Input
Amino acid sequence: METGISSSYSDQFIAQLAGTLPFAHLRDQAWAEFTRLGLPAKKAEEYKYTPVARYLEKTGVWPQTTHSTIANLAGINGPEIGGQRVVLVNGKWNAELSTTHVVPGLTVKSLTQETPTLLGGVNGFSNDSFSALNTAAWTDGVYVRVAKNTRVGDPITILHIQETNSAPVQVHTRVFVHLEPGAEATIVHQTQTLGTHSAFHTVVDEAVVEAGSRLNYYKLQTDTGKSIEVWNSTIRQADDSHVDTFTLTTDGELVRNNFHIEINGQRCESHFHGLYLLQGDTLADNHTVVDHQKPNSFSNELYKGIMADKSKGVFNGKIFVRPHAQKTNAYQSNRNILLTDTASVNTKPQLEIWADDVKCSHGCTSGQLDEEALFYLRSRGLAEGTAKAMLLYAFAAETLETIKNEPLKRYIENLVGNRLHKNF
Amino acid sequence: MLSISNLHASIGEKKILNGIHLSVKPGEVHAIMGPNGSGKSTLASVLSGREEYEVTDGEVLFEGKDLLAMAPEDRAREGIFMAFQYPVEIPGVSTINFMKTAINQIRQYRGQNALDAVSFLNVMKEKMKLVEIDQSLLNRSLNEGFSGGEKKRNEIFQMAMLEPKLAILDETDSGLDIDALRIVANGVNKLRSKDNAVIVVTHYQRLLDYIVPDFVHVLYKGRIVKSGTKDLALELEAKGYDWIKSETAAV
Output
């Protein structure tokens, strides 16, 4: 059944929040932009497969962030990979549950303690409802800074926990990562909603990757609760920097990732990987932008999806190669497997290339599991379930190849293996 | 060992096998020959359990068990192996890894303990020598970027690893040069014993110079129209298939 968003829902949503936020200058502008835009309308091109407002309307009223009293991390199977662990509960930094220790050159603190001047300068909010809403309404978040030539090997894990035991929650989280020249860091985000009510969670995260630095960046969207998540992530790269990203989405009611890599430097390398393994009714939408603004850089984007049950995948991959960005190598690939007739995927590559001396390619496919390969493996004595799992795991594993941190890699391989019933 | 009686099979509306009778005993090598479209590969496919073929009549017993009721994996576990005419390429799955899983699932089916890593490696090294295949090939994604000869050698390597009671070689000679053909045939010959049997499906006689059959059967329009010894294969090589067709038409 088609339920349209009533035109007034967006207004109600705004009215509910109006006048309640601790506005600073930026917040005022962002709030003005959000009230101008409202929630994305039903026909909004950028959200046509992902009607966030309709999902929000199903729950109706979204109280603002409520204080949570969770005392421990029972029920949270976050990665045990050492390093720093920041726990945000309903968007607030929870010091008791967080584990941080002093590493020379590394700053990990709450954005309420220190707000970098560049905040909002990397991920803008004009013409984007959720960036604007988040910029106006965020209450807490994480600020990571790595000093010049400091290489931090152990990961910095940020657990986003929404506690919804008594009511739905609305949480707006902000993250800012700054790698000074020659620095390195590994950031791991993971999400989980506890309780029976719904959570509406927006994140805006910005990363400044200065010359010669290296960012390893992972999102593990494994939230098995009733969550509606919208992420706006922007990474800005300077000369000779290296970025590896990997986004895993396995659960949630709706997950929308707006992910933007701005290659504003020469001789950069960017590996932009994603894997969505969906089941039930989950809708996951990856909207990605790779923007080559300077010459001589390399980017490789690889997103893969396996959709079961009635799940829906969406991929939109934009590559821009600006007029001065000669000698750019930019590759994009999106591959999908549909396991049922009721699962679906919409995939759309968009390349806009203004430079003439570049190498770019893109490809997208969607289809079923290869029956011939399945028969081949079974004819060697493999049970049908094992053969399927083996083919699906092999398909998915290609996206994990760039993950360097071994404990993290094993943790992610485990998440993927469990979802795909790997038993070999 | 294998007893096929009055086997009829079709794909969609098209009838391809029209009453095959064939009996194979341990230690024997049978060659199935015939012109294109006679049903040779269909017979191999039906025996290995390919699901797109529908068996409309007849019976196949393997060591007394109803083969047609078994899933493809259970046929393999009972001891049937098919070397594919066109081995598939599977990115991300190495021959070694999937063979290890296959062998242990087969062993489990037979009530045997799983092979540990060391024993598996020892068996593998021994079989690699047998079929003259390099380990680097087996570590790579299955058949991906392999030459025609490498793919077929990989098939025979898998056959060596699984030690089937009945091996079905489906046009294993297609696409092979003479050296690759010799290596593949040598591998098969080394695996022959008084306890196992081989069915060689081929269009040409040349493979049979290397794998010498005890019986040669000519398939035409979905039936075995002539059976004989290896001399029949030579006769077919010399005279082609036309005399068989006219002989059949005259009946």
In short: The first helix of chain B runs from residue 40 to 48. Chain B touches chain A at residues 48-51, 71-73, 75-77, 81-82, 84, 87-88, 90-93, 97-99, 101-103, 105-106, 109, 141, 158, 162 (CB under 8 Å). Chain B has a mean pLDDT of 92. The two ends of chain B are 31 Å apart (CA to CA).
